[in-house]
Amino acid sequence: MKIKFKIAAMLAAVALFSTSCNKAPEDLYGGGTGEEGTLKVTLELPPAPDSKATASTAKPITTWAKSIKSVMVILTNTSGLILDARTVVPATTADIAAKTHVLNGIATGSYNVFVVANYGETGFSYTATNPAWTIANVKGKNISALPLNLATNTAFVATANETGHRAYGSPAEVFVGSQTGVTISADATSNASVTLTRAVSMFRTRIISTTTLAAPAVGNDQVNFANVNSDIRIRRVANAVNLLTPGTDNVVYPTTRPATDLVYSKGAFNTANPAAADYSNPTTMLGTGTGAHKAWKDVMVFPGGHATRLSEMFELIISGWAPIGYIPIDEATGQPAAALTAPALVYWIATVQDAALATDPGKVLARNQILEVDLYVNSAGYNRPPGPGSYGNLQIAISLADWGNISNVDIIM
Question: Per CATH, which fold does 4-146+171-198 belong to?
Answer without folding.
Answer: Immunoglobulin-like (2.60.40)
